[in-house]
Specification:
With 573 residues, the chain is an alpha/beta fold. The chain contains 20 helices and 21 strands. It has a seven-stranded mixed β-sheet, sandwiched between helices. The protein is globular. Bound molecules: thiamine diphosphate and magnesium ion (MG). The site of thiamine diphosphate has 18 residues, from helix 15 and helix 17.
Amino acid sequence: MSSSPSRRMKIGDFLLRRLAEAGIRHLFGVPGDYNLELLQQLQDAGALKWIGTCSELNASYAADGYARLNGLGALLVTNGVGALSAINGVGGSCSEHVPVICIAGSIPLRSIDRGLGMHHTMADGSYDHFLDAYAHVTAAHARLTPRNAATEIDRLILTAWREKLPVYMELPSDIAYLDIEVPAGPLTLAEPPSDPERLRSCIAAITGRLSAATSPAILVDADADRFGVASELVALAEKVRCPVAVINTAKGVIDETFPHYLGIYLGRASEPQVRDAIETSDCLLAIGYRPIEVTTGDFTAALPANTIHARGHSVDLGDDNYQAVTLKEVLKGVIDAVPQAKNRAPRPVAAAAASTRADGAHADPSAKLTQAAYWRAMQGYLREGDVLFVDNGTSYALFGLKFPPKCTFVGSVNWGSIGYSVGALLGTLTAAPERRHILFVGDGSFQVTAQELSTILRQDHKPVIFLINNGGYTIERGYLGKTEPYNDIANWSYADLPKVFRRDTQARSFVVKTVGDLQNALRAPNDTLIFVESIMDRFDALAPVMNSSNKGADLDYGPRGPQRPNNQLRPAV
Ligand SMILES: Cc1ncc(C[n+]2csc(CCOP(=O)(O)OP(=O)(O)O)c2C)c(N)n1
Ligand SMILES: [Mg+2]
């Protein structure tokens, strides 16, 4: 038995108290009869703010976006119908390593005890289907009871935070108002301390390799952001004077104006100097590297065989595998121990890709807007501190832009669920309303989650939304069906939506058809929401986006597949 002081509290109140102690100030979700009792406790306590969303899918995306800027996020859904609507987004958080707490108000224990059939179930006498489903997309899950609530709530919140993964908890609707004994002290979010010997040996081994190397380099994946070590990596690169590249999941994690920043490593699809620095390094330190086809230039990435793989809580180096070492402690130790290098100058910083250089000002204003002109103009629009979103589609061209300092990139490269960005935008706006948030989204992706624009307006947020109206799924036309109707979508009047979703909106909406129209829209001040609908040709996309789709089709369908030059959108030769 623990001897720490305890007190009595209602289970629901304790859960909300723990969320607040973990730094969560907002809860996203949709009410339902199985969670209204907790919502009443939330209202009565007043520590957390409820942000009702139009759907649980959007709530899961919002909680994910919120967690990326806040360190943890949470959503509240109702049994079954809500939980399964949210599972795509929570699966995305699992894939993208984002700590989200999904709380489902669920069937009362009384009904489970008595085997009573209830709504929002399969009516098959089982109450475990949704717990079982969530087991596959979370680091931990539990159904709370009066016996386990005090320990399980803490275990789940701490697991999410430590593993940077989502968790799922069911709160049966008849226990939120029951008193239990809970710890009196606050929940402390702390990393488990490293094993001292393993940490010492690991630091010594990495330091030894780095000091002996002639061409060390660092390769960064998204975990560098999730585990909050970007500043350590910059400090290490400065001390060792080595180049740092990111993979596209980690776009913007390393300040792109940092003199040792190289660019994006994508195997054979990389700029030559990036590829060379990574593949010929005699001491490559990879942080949380999780390669898939879209982050490796279709598996053409070739990291040196002796690459050091550092992860959140382990390091793999040569014959040794170090467990019970936390990434931050390892990096801090290496920064202290490694000698200051003097003999290496920073490599020249990679220029923005030619197709996206900010020289659009000289274009003819009456010219029909093209993707090339669009992205040139966007390069000039970005400014320090922006939160920059990309959804799936031709807007992937954002990866070719050079970010000013202190920008945050929010995307879903591994999971890639279209519409994620609109829900996630609500989340990041809620977490950091003082920053400028810019969304780059296609018409097809937008249609999946468009309703959440209404919550963004309802909460008085002022993001900039750049929507490309190209009549459908252009990025898919590069896989298959260049002109097939399955890649076409309804042509909404997108720029009218702010008015539809909020009658008294002050939002500025623009429909852009020419370069001049775009220049005009880009001059709008950021004191309201800005919605820019750009009409572009359905066959217009930057070459890297089309190339990636063409290669993706070969991988997906194989040599006997239906893809041919005449049924795929391809770059002009
Ligand atoms: C949930 C989900 N459904 C389907 C897909 C497949 N998909 C990937 S990109 C895409 C089309 C995106 O079209 P749009 O947003 O209009 O971008 P564009 O390429 O036209 O600029 C689709 C349907 C997906 N990634 N996620
Ligand atoms: Mg489109």
